[in-house]
Amino acid sequence: MINYIKIPIIVFLLSISVVSAKPNIKARTAILVDYQSGKILYELQPDHSIHPASMTKIMTSIIVFDLLAEGKISLNDKVTISEKAWRMSQAGYSSMFIMINDEITIENLLKGIIIASGNDACVALAEGIAGTEENFVSLMNEKAEEIGMSSTNFANTSGINDPDNYSTVRDIALMSKYLIKNYPIYYEYFKETEFTWERTGGDPITQGNRNTLLYKNIGVDGIKTGHLAVEQYSLASSIKKDTRRLISVGSGFATNSLRASESRKLLSWGLTNTITFEVSKKDLTHFDINTWLGKDKSIPGYTKEDVYVTIDKKNLRDFNVFIEYTGPVKAPIKKDDKIAFINVYNKNKLIKSTPIYATKKNKKINFLLSLLTSFNFLIWGDA
């Protein structure tokens, strides 16, 4: 006899705190995403097309990190500064203040891009790696397509004003998550608050990171500011509290101070009013699944992805997670067979379902023993 079995795997004993309404964010477009679960916690016209300005430099950095990870370049490799790159520092743009014909390491150029937001460093690094900025931009657009940034096109490496350099806050959040997930070591650059460059042709120049949330000691550790007259102020930011991380992206803030205060408001609201639970870690968390007519009476199951669930705290009482399967599962079972599901419910509505796979095979017992087992099951209901 096959039974449909539900097994609760999480019991909540948390008190329900008073939650506030979603904040009124003074921006043209904004989004707040839980890093682990991917759930969108807040959105304000998230698909509105924007000029990402210096948030473009997140992708510029990702391309370099990719090449570093592949061993095609190293942080100590040096780039010779061209006249084109040098002129960027003379044109009034955000600059690292590099000098023509100087040889600068990739690591220093990265710091000049990430911390000082140097447009000159972007051009220098692009030319040093791909020959021309245009070639490097092709790599950026290929990467954007790979990540799934469906509403983005990059026209340059720095984000300077160009009608063909566009994106959305949804895509910028996706790109930011890719950066943090794949390059946690290099992501450390994004929380540095100061960069000094000595070979400027004059006195050393020290510049502070323009992301003022880094100075507030609230857990913000990135990511990148942006500013264009046509777009006003923008900010991609991320906050980490204990094991939880949120990513916020906003654009169209009227002032520099507003982009900081409104982004902080959004991040704080997310941490206060929502909660994320770890249900399963990819390949690591095991769930016992009962079997029938197999040599093993149960086998462990695993998920092929991390399973996190984010909910509003006000919905805690209505939130349940179950292992569900039609079972016991009949042998033979092959390794990696789909044998169950982790199902997440809110107010009895299924909101997420993730397959569970067998960690090993379970052979069927011999014919006589299977007859005896089936007879016992019919008489006693004991599989």
Structure description:
The protein is α+β, with helices and mostly antiparallel strands. It has two domains: 3-13 and 280-380, Peptidoglycan synthesis regulatory factor (PBP3), Domain 2; 29-253, Beta-lactamase. It has helices at 56-69, 83-88, 106-114, 119-130, 133-147, 169-182, 256-273, 367-380, and strands at residues 3-8, 29-34, 40-44, 78-80, 103-105, 194-197, 205-208, 220-228, 232-241, 244-253, 274-280, 287-292, 298-302, 307-312, 319-327, 329-330, 338-346, 349-358. The strands form five sheets. It has a seven-stranded mixed sheet with strand order 1-15-17-18-13-12-16, with no helix packed on it. A five-stranded antiparallel sheet has the order 3-2-10-9-8, with helices on both faces. A two-stranded antiparallel ribbon has the order 4-5. It is globular and about 85 Å long. The chain starts with a strand and ends with a helix. Residues 1-5 and 11-16 have low confidence and may be disordered.
Question: How are the elements arranged and paired?
Answer:
Elements: E1 3-8, E2 29-34, E3 40-44, H1 56-69, E4 78-80, H2 83-88, E5 103-105, H3 106-114, H4 119-130, H5 133-147, H6 169-182, E6 194-197, E7 205-208, E8 220-228, E9 232-241, E10 244-253, H7 256-273, E11 274-280, E12 287-292, E13 298-302, E14 307-312, E15 319-327, E16 329-330, E17 338-346, E18 349-358, H8 367-380
Parallel strand pairs: 12-16
Antiparallel strand pairs: 1-15, 2-3, 2-10, 4-5, 6-7, 8-9, 9-10, 11-14, 12-13, 13-18, 15-17, 17-18
